[in-house]
Design a protein that fits this description.
CATH class of the largest domain: Alpha Beta
Shape: flat
Number of helices: 27
Distance between the termini: 93 Å
Number of domains: 5
Strand content: 15-25%
Strand order of the largest sheet: 18-19-21-22-23-24-25-26
Helix content: 40-55%
CATH architecture of the largest domain: Alpha-Beta Barrel
Radius of gyration: 40 Å
Number of strands: 26
CATH topology of the largest domain: TIM Barrel
């Protein structure tokens, strides 16, 4: 049986012919017949190979054309795994995302979606996977260099055989289209403005008018279109006036001036008219656009300018500028009458919490309601304010009330001011109905008296502000009067600030180290705590000088010094086996963390010191984290990429929320000492601590408790599953020499 592949007659005939041409015919003997057959087969195979090579060449050309079409298509093509990893991408897709194709593969596509669009993308992605259907969406995306663009995504889920499903995406940059749409919307809104707009062609024939044109002239669009602007002529302008106007339009493409026109009802009115020529790129005029408004409305505009300059836009109360003017008048009036007056500084308690939890729109509702209550509260009957009094909003949640015509006697005037202040507190403490939900808010009030020009405007406001500060410090929802002793405290505060500016360069600052231990009481690290020993005043408590550093901005250079000192210590410890693995926690303030150069500064300090970044742990407070969560996460991730760890300090005392907690690149929660203090005796604290530990373990985070002072506290923490501790039970914060002695070095 022959093993030859079946041959087509044309191929056989061609092979026979080629063999015949290659040799001289001779009598065929059996051996020669076999040789002949072999030669024919050889030629057939050669011809087949030629056909295969031509077919292969055609396939390669087709493949190259497909690759070119795929890679250089004007649309980005990407293939994602079921977990959102980029498995394939064409060159256009890589260019759109700003990453080399080789580096793009196996990265999460979601990294290129802006934070605000992240949730929407995950929803669309899950819909594609679950429904195995096509999904089309638009997303705000960002390239590797941080630049943003709007994209159109056409997503399709496909699975071959038993393979996991994959999502194919056609990605198109629609930023230009979005921009054009925005321009069209802006143009449409502008056309619907309160100014009359009339568009005419190059011959002056009206082709379009806006609703304001109809309102101002009385002519409908149907009546005006097809006419010329002569429809509105009042007859008050002569031919030279119009000649000058058209000459300006021809030479400058623009004219502006006052014009008298006539409405449909025959009434003549003055308007301020602006005409602009619309030209092609070649300079040919195609249309004229005229905009106009009644000059009589300018008086209303002037009133609006005055209102914006002197009144708060949200509450319509006098602003700081008008307050200073009114307060100056009150001082002059007091000087003439001899009567006392008072300045009340009012600040809402915990207003920031409302803004953070329910949004600024609801916060604005509260601010407006507070303004109404201040205006319709209680003073001598049924009002807080009366003729001569001034109620103003300085900004944020701060209000000022200026009372005039109080008693000639200071004691009695103080009693009158206190009565008003208490009525203010009572009025503001009533429940608020904000967008259908009840909200409770209290207020702190600071008061200072004045008579005549004994104090300047700035001094009075400063005194009232100091009194308010004292009321806040007294527990909020309080009322305090300015005490001259407070001024002495302020002077002392200023002197201390001046000394603090020199503390770093004079070597007065030190880092103390409080050990952190595991459940076996082995030292696993320490927290670096800042101390200041003043040469004359002695030790200055951290709760005194650290807020001072925050308010004055000194926290930035001091924070840099702390980082440098801590990293130098980490580097020194790395040389010894007993301390090589210790981790050092450093507290970072909100102002320091929010500084634009903070990440670069940390990199610089690490590079200069040679410290191992994995030995450095940064502690952040909850209040810092929830203020602009997206920016916080981005900054934390940049630092985490260096190897730095993060711990959330004072956890449980702020606005704890799983919605942001699960997004933060944390590795540790620190239980605040306020919960540890009464842990063994207070069931509420015990429940809170147990919840925090469970939450930490659920999220895969370590949990450390600070302020551990008794064996009972330690036993309870150990029972709940806490694995790290810090507190006086083990050691107080120690200077470096004593800390190393504590380690037995």
């Amino acid at each position: 049986m022959s093993t030859k592949p079946p041959q087509s007659p044309p191929l056989r005939a061609a092979a026979e012919a080629r063999l015949a041409d290659a040799r001289t015919p001779a009598p065929i003997r059996p051996a020669e017949e076999l040789l002949h057959e072999l030669q024919v087969h050889q030629i057939e195979l050669e011809m087949q190979n030629e056909d295969l090579r031509r077919a292969q060449f055609a396939l390669e050309e087709s493949r190259d054309r497909y690759v070119d079409l795929y890679d250089f298509a004007p649309v980005g093509y990407l293939t994602l795994t079921d977990t959102g990893l980029i498995a394939e991408a064409n060159l256009t897709g890589a260019a759109l995302l700003g990453v080399d194709r080789v580096k793009l593969l196996h990265r999460h596509f979601s990294r290129f979606v802006t934070p605000e669009a992240s949730d929407y993308w995950h929803l669309q992605f899950m819909r594609v996977l679950l429904r195995d259907d096509r999904q089309i969406c638009e997303l705000a995306m960002r390239r590797a260099d941080g630049s943003r663009f709007h994209a159109h995504l056409d997503c399709l889920c496909r699975a071959a055989g038993d393979q996991l499903p994959r999502v194919r995406i056609a990605l198109t940059d629609i930023s230009a289209r979005r921009h054009a749409d925005e321009e069209l919307r802006i143009a449409a809104i502008a056309f619907e403005s309160q100014e009359g707009i009339m568009v005419s062609d190059s011959h002056g024939v009206i082709v379009r008018v806006n609703p304001a044109f109809t309102r101002l002239t009385g002519y409908s669009a149907f009546e005006a279109i097809g006419q010329t602007p002569a429809l509105l002529r009042s007859g008050r302008h002569d031919k030279p006036f119009y000649d000058r106007m058209w000459q300006a339009l021809r030479e400058n493409g623009y004219w502006q001036g006052e014009m008298w026109n006539k409405r449909k009802n025959g009434k003549v009115y003055a308007e301020w008219l602006t005409i602009s020529a619309v030209k092609t790129p070649e300079g040919e005029t195609t249309h004229y656009v005229g905009t106009f408004s009644e000059i009589t409305q300018n008086k209303e505009a002037q009133a609006e300018i005055h209102r914006l300059a002197y009144y708060d836009a949200l509450t319509h109360l006098p602003n700081r500028r008008l307050l200073l003017d009114r307060l100056g008048q009150a001082l002059a009036s007091s000087s003439r009458s001899g009567c006392h007056g008072a300045v009340l500084f009012i600040d809402l308690d915990n207003f920031k919490t409302l803004n953070d939890t329910r949004g600024h729109a609801v916060g604005d509702l509260l601010l407006g309601e507070v303004a109404q209550r201040l205006q319709s509260g209680v003073r001598e009957g049924d009002t807080i304010s009366r003729l001569g009094d001034t109620i103003s909003r300085l900004g944020g949640d701060e209000y000022v009330v200026v009372l005039e015509d109080l008693s000639l006697e200071a004691v009695e005037a103080a009693a009158q001011a206190r009565a008003v202040g208490e009525k203010v507190r009572a009025a503001l403490a009533r429940p608020y109905d904000l967008d259908g939900r009840e909200f409770h808010c209290t207020a702190s009030v600071g008061i200072t008296l004045f008579r005549g020009h004994e104090a300047t405007l700035d001094a009075l406001l400063k005194q009232a502000d100091l009194a308010l500060y004292q009321a806040k410090g007294a527990g909020r929802n309080c009322l305090c009067f300015f005490d001259p002793a407070m001024q002495s405290t302020l002077d002392e505060y200023s002197a201390l600030e001046a000394d603090l500016r020199l503390a770093v360069q004079r070597g007065q600052l030190q880092l103390y180290y409080q050990p952190q231990l595991d459940s076996a009481r082995r030292v696993i690290g320490a927290e670096a705590l800042l101390r200041w020993r003043h040469p004359q005043r002695g030790p200055i408590a951290p709760d005194v000088f650290i807020p001072l550093a925050e308010e004055s901005g000194l926290i930035l250079p001091i924070g840099r010094w702390v980082l440098e000192t801590a990293c130098a210590q980490i580097k020194a410890w790395s040389a010894h086996a007993a301390t090589h693995d210790l981790r050092l926690a450093v507290n970072v303030s909100a102002r320091q963390f929010r500084h634009a150069d903070f990440v670069a500064e940390v990199k610089e300090v690490l590079a200069a010191s040679g410290a191992d970044p994995s030995r450095l742990k940064i502690e952040l407070t909850e209040s810092l984290v929830i203020d602009n969560v997206a920016e916080t996460i981005a900054r934390m991730r940049a630092l985490k990429a260096l190897g730095i760890g993060f711990s959330m300090d004072d956890f449980g005392t702020g606005f704890s929320s799983l919605s942001y907690l699960k997004r933060l690149p944390l590795e540790q929660l620190k239980i605040d000492r306020s919960f540890v203090n009464d842990l063994a005796t207070d069931p509420n604290d015990a429940a809170i601590v147990q919840t925090i530990i469970t939450m930490g373990h659920t999220l895969g985070l370590d949990v450390i408790a600070e302020g551990v002072e008794t064996e009972a506290q330690l036993a309870r923490l150990d029972q709940y599953g806490c694995t790290a501790y810090q507190g006086f039970l083990f050691s107080r914060p120690l200077p470096i020499a004593e800390f190393e002695a504590f380690l037995g070095l």
